[in-house]
Amino acid sequence: MTDARAGRRCHHVLNPLNAVLYFSPEFTQAMRGIGLDTDDDAPGSFFGMRGYFAARSAAMGAVGPGTVTATFFNFSHELISRHIPHAWAIASPAQVLAARLAAADLMLRRLLGDEAVGSKEMAEAAELAVRAAEGAGRSGRPLYAAEADQPWAKAPHLALWQAATMLREHRGDGHIALLSHAGLDGIEALVSHTASGRGFTTRAAQTIRGHSAGDWAAAQERLRERGLLDADGELTPRGAELRKELEYETDRLAVGPYERLGAEGTERLTGLAGVFAGAAVGAFPQGLFGK
Question: Which Pfam family is one of those matched by this entry (predicted)?
Fold first, then answer.
C-alpha cells in the first residue's frame, strides 16, 4: 500500500475510540477512585487534568514534568507541573494504567452495548488493529514505545482500545518531530492548528492546554511575523500550505502500521472501526471542536 491517505482515514476512525475516554464519566470516576481527582482545574475544564496527565504518561513510568511537557508538546509546562510529579505520590503508574483500562471497559460497554462488544466484528477489528499497532517501530517514538511495552488485554474491545491508543501515539510522535522541524513550538503549533478550523475551539484549546490569553496572543504575533497568520488570526495562504504539508508528511511517517495490513486490511479495519467510532464521536462534549 503506497497511499498514506488510507492510513489517515483509518486513524481518523480509530482515534475517537481512544480520545473520548478522557472526556468520559467512567474515566473521571476511575481517577477519583485512586485519588487523582483535583479541584484546582480551570473553570470550564472538560476533564480532570491530573488524571489525564498521569494516564497518558503512566506507560513511561513515574516521569517528571519535563518529560511530559516534551512528549505532550503543546501543553503549558506550568499546568503540567501542577500535577506531575505530584500524581505519583498518590498513585503508582501501574495503578493508573489499571484504572485507565477499567474505565475504557466500562465506557465502551456503555457507548457500544454488550452485543457489539462481544461481536465477531469487534474481534476482527481488534485483530487487525493489534496487527497494525505491532508493526510500528519504537525508535524516536517515546509515547508509542511506552504503550507498546504494555501487555495486551485479552478482551477484544480492550485490545482494540489499546491498539487505537498506540496508533494515536505513534502518529503523534511523528507529528511532533515534524512540528519541531518546521520551527513551531507547542503553543504556535496549537494556535495554527486551531486557526485551520480542524482542531479545538480557541476556548477549549486554551483551557485544556493551559495557555493564557496573553501567551496565545504572543504566539499569534510570532506566527504573523513569519507570514503564517493574518491580522484577523486566520491562516495566510503560506500558513495553510504549511499545515497541509505537515499533515501530508505526518501521513507519510505514520503509514508503516497500515502497510503491514495492506490496502485491503486497512480498508476493512476502517470500515469496522468506523461503525464503533460513531458512538464515540457523539460522546464528545459540545463546544470542543471548531473555531
Answer: HTH_67
